[in-house]
Structures are given as C-alpha cells and as structure tokens.
Amino acid sequence: MKKELLFAFAAFFFMSLSAITGVYAGEQEQKTVTLSKDKVDVTGDNKADTIYIKGVYYEEGASFLKEISLEVKASDGNTYNAKLEGGYEPQIQFEDLNRDSIKDMYISIPTGGSGGLSNFYLYTLKDLKMVDLSVPDPLVINSQFENGYKANISIQDTKQSYTFDLRDRSEEYERLGLYVNGKLSEPTELMVNPYSTLKIIPVEGEKGLMGIQRISGAYNADTIAFVESFWLYEDGIWNLKDTKVMKMNSRKR
C-alpha cells in the first residue's frame, strides 16, 4: 500500500512539474521583437547612437502590442530604456523640439478603436540622461447642447466660445430622443476627445506641435467640429500659441 501511494505521489509531482514547465515555455514564446532601428545622435556628442522601438505582441498573429519600449544604446556603451503604453505600429521621429540643438525622440502609438486616438511621447537623452519631456495636454473644452438644435463649446485656455448650428441634424436628434420638438430633453454635454493627431509642424518659425481634437455630439461618429492647437516648447514648458475651430457639416461626416 505504501509503495502504491509513493508511486501515485511521484506521478502527481511529475505531472505538476510538466504543467509548470509548459506554462513557462508558453510565456517564453512571447518574445520581444524589434519594430524599428535608427542610428541618430541623440546625446549631443556628435556620435551616432542606436535607437530601438521594441514590443511584445498580445498573441501570435495579433497586431496589438501589449508591451512597447524605447531602448537607446548610446555611444558611451550603456543602454537607456523607457516603457511605453501598448498599441499598434509605433512610429518614431527625431527632431529638436525643446530647442537645445540636440535631436529629441518623438513617438506616436495608435491605440485603435473608432476614436482614432494615439498616445504620444517625447524623450531627450542630452548628456546621457533620459528625460521625459512630455507632450502638451489636450485643451480643456467645456461643451453642451442648447435648445434649438445648437451646441456651444468654450476653450478654457483662450476663453473663446463657439456656437454651432446643428439644425441639419434635427431629424436624427429627434429620433434619438436628444431633442423633443427642438427642446433639449435633458442637459447634455458633447464628447470632447483627446488628441487624435499630434504632429510636428513649424510654429512661428520653430519646430512645434499641432494637436487635433475631435468634438462629437450624440455619438462618437457624430462629428461636430475639430479643434486644432499649436504649441511651442519654451523655457521648459509647452506654450499654447494659437487655436482653430473647424465645424463639420453633417453630410461630410
């Protein structure tokens, strides 16, 4: 009887060990892959550094990257890393956005979904110190529908307000119950999205950023307007230089 128990225990032990080994092997299969490799001087020593964007896919055959990282093998022989949020097809650009005569690393990572949103990152490795310069926060925009098929937005940073005539959407808004005979059913805010785009462009003759935020109405695809913001990095912070608001006609949605 003791011998049978011993054999049973041994069998259970080896089965458990095999299961643990299998799980470990499965985890090991999720390998880190190199998504891009560039040779650029990002430290300011006039020597090329090697910059990688690496990631781990959610599963085999998937396009979503659950882990993404920035890795720089610098000319001093050391490696510098920064962890980034997951997403799809990260892109990196090298531009001097903080105006210190050294190229910074600007990374955009689409997050997927109907909103067309992305995450954006800006790093410098000046003097071999990895620093997150960050990007400008999206504009704070207050918004609400109004009686008579209208909507109003107010940009907090500039104190500017804009009113949109939405009578061309009245039939749909009545069908959805947002309005009843032109009167708003209940107080309702618009949907103010974060940046869908934040790209490098000239701003006042310098390298800066332009952000685009979409304003939606009854649902995400009900685009009412796009708000553009223009930014320059000055004295260690992002300064807003200008804004533009573009109304979308319903037939162009």
TrEMBL record:
Highest taxon, organism lineage: Bacteria
Protein name: Spore coat protein
Keyword field: Signal
Keyword Signal among record annotations: yes
Residues making up the signal peptide according to the UniProt record: 1-25
